[in-house]
């Protein structure tokens, strides 16, 4: 009974999760270009490409535009980041520094599977094509 009362808020919760997760994710991307006291990564370093992806796809996820494919791609990038950069430092994410990569991976999988939720440009775009 209580779950049915809360389930009506799911689209809003997913939308807010998408917005706030993407807001943080974009900052990680911009950090790779020297913003927020980050170290500048130069082309063609792998982390330069990661920064481009995190910034562009993060903005798409933030706006809720082409959300499902963008979130799916970034979940994959975060899985690769975790296995390539963090797992060699040990099994536990708290010790190998991989908490963010792990969390972003699964948050983006949830968004890719559930859709953008409320407050998205996809919602506006898809509503117009149905009319």
Descriptive report:
It is a single chain. The protein has one domain (11-130). 73% of the residues lie in helices and 0% in strands. The protein has helices at 2-7, 10-31, 46-63, 67-86, 93-96, 99-114, 121-130.
Question: Short description, anyone?
Answer:
The chain has 131 residues and is mostly helical. Helices cover 73% and strands 0% of the residues.
Shape: globular
Percent in helix: over 70%
Number of domains: 1
Instruction: Report the sheet with the most strands, covering strand number, pairing sense and barrel closure.
Output: none
Give the helix tally. Answer: 7
Mean pLDDT: 94
Beta-strand content bin = under 5%
Distance between the termini: 35 Å
Q: SSE string, helix = H, strand = E?
A: HHHHHHH
Uncertain segments of ≥5 residues (pLDDT<50)? none
Total strands: the figure is: 0
Computed Rg:
16 Å
Task: Briefly note the structural class of the backbone.
Answer: mainly alpha
SSE blueprint and pairings:
Elements: H1 2-7, H2 10-31, H3 46-63, H4 67-86, H5 93-96, H6 99-114, H7 121-130
Helix pairs in contact: 2-3, 2-6, 3-4, 4-6
Question: What are the salient characteristics of this protein?
Answer:
single chain, mainly alpha, 73% helix, 0% strand, globular
């Amino acid at each position: 009974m209580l779950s049915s009362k809360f389930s009506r808020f799911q689209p809003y919760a997913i939308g807010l999760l998408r917005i706030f997760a993407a807001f943080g994710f974009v900052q990680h991307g911009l950090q790779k270009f020297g913003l927020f006291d980050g170290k500048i990564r130069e082309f063609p370093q792998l982390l330069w490409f990661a920064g481009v992806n995190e910034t562009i796809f993060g903005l798409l996820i933030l706006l809720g535009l082409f959300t499902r494919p963008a979130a799916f791609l970034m979940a994959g990038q975060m899985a690769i980041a975790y296995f390539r950069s963090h797992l060699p430092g040990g099994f536990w994410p708290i010790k190998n520094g991989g908490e963010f990569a792990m969390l972003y991976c699964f948050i983006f999988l949830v968004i890719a599977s559930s859709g953008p939720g409320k407050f998205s440009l996809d919602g506006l775009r898809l509503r117009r094509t149905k009319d």
